[in-house]
């Protein structure tokens, strides 16, 4: 069956064009005005919009609507309400009022609040985010109209990811407009951050998945000896896509396209059974919503294909994990990208000022940026043996690094290195124009042409926090630059001086070398750059004086909101590691120790039988000794893990508890895993109680 992309694209979105078609002119104009300039929709208009939205959704088969929001537990929440009203004279009507559209009150006491709401103030409200379009979602439970909302407490504190993001977008809009005005731009009315997240994921066969308690409970394997083949041949990357996976991707695209998500590229990733999906970039808050929806859809469509989509940052030890490359740029409503260097970046004063501000922002707030990408799963990527390192640095590429160096040395950059052409040496092939910047896959924050690519974010995480932080730190640097330059007598000289000063002061954040090397860790330490290896080490960054000053100044987070987020993060960390530890205890006790016992029994009987007839049983004896030794280590490690988990769970201080999970339980878990994985290599495959790495990664 072929599909007509232009026909289905966005067909499930209550988009601007749908509104233009369906709403009375006056109401449509009012909606557009609120979308662009903020403010409130009148109740009368909200009623009209709600009714049209409902009719449109009902035509699509919808029976329910939901206020769709992103609480602080990382998943999207929805509570379905039916359009049905109380029957009058035996007839019921389908209804959605303006009030229902604009505001909801979910029973919110079960979402994490980090102490923000005492239970007697347990009210939480959802409020419509008019700038993110409503859509219908087709799922097993029926067709649902989803209304993107923010989630706030009775006292106005943000209980979600979206509210701070929207606040940060207002901050960067305001401060970036001051920058463009300095350069005489009077036309731009709005500056918005645009985001395009590349999403990595793994697929696994559902039947095999169901045999692995660790995948079911924690999303990653807690045990597993490496398969004979990993990713060393690099034959998977961009390899041809297998039929089953291909048909999954086709379906996924169709579902995403319907909801207006521009999934464009799809390819295999480095690890076996790992893939990537990238949409075309769009306004930050819509990109965040779309990414949440994409993750949800990826999981749902997978089950329809007998697959499970693993979004965990590190489902398998020993092969690459998954991240999200958060591509970010800042654009005026007149179509200019402030990160576009043009042909002569060295002479593009506005670009240089923006770049200098970015250097300052990233350097001063490296800790916050690192924190914004910290989640439990990401601890297995960042600061471990793979991309990217836990140290924040910026990659600019040859051309821009050269420009920065010239400016730092002499105050100006007179010549800009050019990209040039790439001659393939084959006359029938076209001559390719080379980018002036090469790629650096080891950098956590890389300039790629006209955008920065923040590559630290975890694959399962919302990209909201990362973008909120990015917007905030850049807004601050813009604001300080604007303060310095707005009154300047000789603007150009003042700007050049400021650029040179900022670049000099913050040059240490630039690093173009290999981010994985041990030398870089040493060099970064010498430069004084933070190296926050684990999630628990990053959380204090949220509540430093520097952070509170930044976020309060732009009304993005209050101190209380920051403290609550820190608490939620500690809590989440402790809870997640506890679940992992409990799962290991279960699997070791129920699967691995029993298999070790029965296999050593088989070997012992074999030894006895063989020796009874006077034959040589030395191989069986050797295997028996090895297996028994691993079994003993397993049992001892299991006992220690159980005792430590018990003790740590009795701790009452959440910060101390999180640290104990990290410093004691995580090493205990590694100590339990090692002998089990070693035993897996000895025990007969037929006896092994769960699918192996080879089964999981190569039989998709
Ligand atoms: P690359 O090959 O440099 O990673 P891609 O074309 O694969 O670039 O794009 C990666 C992601 O970056 C996509 O989601 C794309 O839409 C997004 N992107 C491209 N240009 C921009 C931009 N100016 N601002 C934000 N995101 C962008
Ligand atoms: Mg990329």
In CATH, the homologous superfamily of the largest domain goes by the name: Glutamine synthetase/guanido kinase, catalytic domain
Rg, rounded, reads 28 Å
Mean pLDDT: 91
Task: List ligands, each type once.
Answer: adenosine-5'-diphosphate, magnesium ion
> Multimeric state of these chains?
single chain
Binned, the helix content reads 40-55%
Principal-axes shape call:
globular
Number of domains: 3
Short note summarizing the structure:
With 700 residues, this protein is of the alpha+beta class.
What does this structure look like?
The protein is an alpha+beta fold and 700 residues long. It has three domains: 5-159, Ubiquitin-like (UB roll) (Roll), CATH 3.10.20; 168-419 and 432-557, 2-Layer Sandwich (Creatine Kinase, Chain A, domain 2), CATH 3.30.590; 573-698, Four Helix Bundle (Hemerythrin (Met), subunit A), CATH 1.20.120. It is 47% helix and 13% strand. The protein contains 22 helices and 18 strands. The chain has helices spanning 5-8, 16-22, 25-37, 43-59, 98-102, 162-182, 206-209, 213-218, 243-258, 284-304, 349-364, 366-372, 397-410, 464-485, 491-506, 518-527, 535-538, 545-553, 559-612, 618-649, 654-680, 693-698; strands at residues 13-14, 62-68, 80-82, 103-104, 124-128, 134-139, 142-153, 191-205, 263-268, 274-279, 282-283, 307-310, 324-332, 394-395, 421-422, 432-433, 445-447, 452-454. Strands 8, 9, 10, 11, 12, 13, 14, 17 and 18 form a nine-stranded mixed beta sheet that branches. Helix 6 packs parallel to helix 14. The mean pLDDT is 91. The structure holds adenosine-5'-diphosphate and magnesium ion (MG). Magnesium ion is lined by residues 198, 325, 453.
């Amino acid at each position: 069956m072929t599909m007509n992309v232009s026909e289905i694209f966005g067909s499930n979105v209550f988009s601007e064009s749908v509104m233009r078609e369906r709403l009375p002119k006056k109401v449509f104009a009012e909606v557009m005005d609120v979308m662009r300039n903020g403010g409130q929709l009148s109740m009368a208009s909200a009623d009209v919009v709600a009714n049209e939205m409902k009719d449109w959704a009902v035509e699509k088969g919808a029976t329910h609507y939901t206020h769709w929001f992103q609480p602080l537990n990382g998943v999207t929440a929805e509570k379905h309400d039916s359009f049905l009203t109380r029957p009058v004279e035996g007839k019921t009507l389908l209804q959605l009022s303006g009030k229902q559209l604009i505001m909801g009150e979910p029973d919110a006491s079960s979402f994490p609040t980090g102490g923000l709401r005492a239970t007697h103030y347990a009210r939480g409200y959802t409020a419509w985010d008019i700038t993110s379009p409503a859509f219908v979602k087709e799922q097993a439970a029926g067709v649902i109209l989803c209304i993107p909302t923010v989630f706030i407490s009775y006292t106005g504190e943000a209980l979600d990811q979206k509210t701070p993001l929207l606040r940060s977008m207002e901050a960067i809009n305001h401060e970036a407009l001051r920058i463009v005005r300095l350069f005489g731009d009077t036309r731009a009315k709005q500056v918005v951050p645009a985001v395009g997240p590349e999403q990595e994921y793994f697929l696994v066969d559902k039947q095999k998945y169901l045999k692995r308690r660790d995948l079911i409970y924690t999303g990653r394997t807690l045990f597993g000896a490496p398969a004979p083949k990993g990713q060393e041949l690099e034959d998977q990357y961009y390899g041809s896509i297998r039929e089953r996976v291909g048909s999954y991707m086709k379906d996924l695209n169709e579902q995403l396209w319907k909801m207006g998500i521009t999934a464009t590229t799809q390819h295999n990733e480095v690890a076996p059974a790992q893939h990537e999906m990238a949409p075309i970039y769009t306004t930050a808050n819509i990109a965040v919503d779309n990414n949440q929806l994409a993750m949800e859809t990826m999981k749902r469509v997978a089950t329809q294909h007998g697959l499970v989509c693993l979004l965990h940052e590190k489902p398998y030890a020993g092969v690459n994990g998954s991240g999200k490359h958060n591509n970010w740029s800042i654009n005026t409503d007149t179509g200019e990208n402030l990160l576009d260097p043009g042909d002569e970046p060295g002479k593009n004063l506005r670009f240089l000022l923006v770049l200098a501000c970015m250097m300052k922002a990233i350097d001063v707030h490296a800790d916050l940026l690192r924190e914004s990408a910290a989640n439990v799963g990401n601890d297995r990527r960042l600061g471990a043996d793979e991309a990217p390192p836990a140290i924040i640095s910026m990659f600019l590429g040859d051309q821009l690094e050269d420009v920065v160096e010239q400016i730092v040395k002499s105050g100006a950059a007179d010549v800009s290195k050019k990209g040039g052409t790439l001659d393939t040496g084959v006359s029938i092939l076209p001559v390719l124009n080379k980018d002036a910047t090469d790629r650096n896959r080891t950098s956590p924050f890389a300039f790629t042409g006209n955008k920065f690519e923040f590559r630290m974010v975890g694959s399962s995480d919302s990209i909201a926090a990362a973008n909120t932080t990015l917007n905030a730190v850049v807004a601050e640097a813009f604001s300080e630059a604007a303060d310095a330059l707005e009154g300047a007598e000789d603007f150009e000289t003042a700007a050049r001086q400021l650029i040179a000063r900022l670049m000099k002061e913050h040059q240490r954040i630039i690093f173009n070398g290999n981010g994985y090397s041990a030398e870089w860790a040493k060099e970064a330490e010498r430069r004084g750059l933070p190296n926050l290896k684990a999630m628990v080490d990053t959380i204090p960054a949220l509540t430093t004086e520097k952070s509170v000053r930044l976020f309060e100044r732009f009304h993005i987070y209050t101190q209380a909101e920051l403290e609550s987020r820190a608490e939620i993060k500690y809590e989440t960390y402790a809870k997640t590691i506890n679940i992992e530890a409990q799962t290991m205890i279960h699997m070791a006790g129920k699967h691995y120790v029993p298999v070790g016992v029965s296999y050593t029994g088989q070997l012992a009987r074999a030894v006895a039988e063989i020796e009874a007839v006077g034959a040589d049983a030395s191989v069986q004896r050797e295997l028996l000794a090895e297996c028994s030794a691993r079994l003993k280590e397993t049992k001892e490690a299991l006992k220690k893990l159980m005792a430590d988990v018990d003790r740590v769970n009795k701790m009452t201080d959440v910060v101390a508890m999180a640290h104990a999970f990290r410093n004691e339980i995580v090493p205990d878990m590694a100590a339990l895993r090692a002998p089990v994985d070693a035993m897996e290599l000895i025990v007969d495959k037929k006896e092994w109680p769960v699918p192996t790495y080879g089964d999981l990664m190569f039989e998709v």
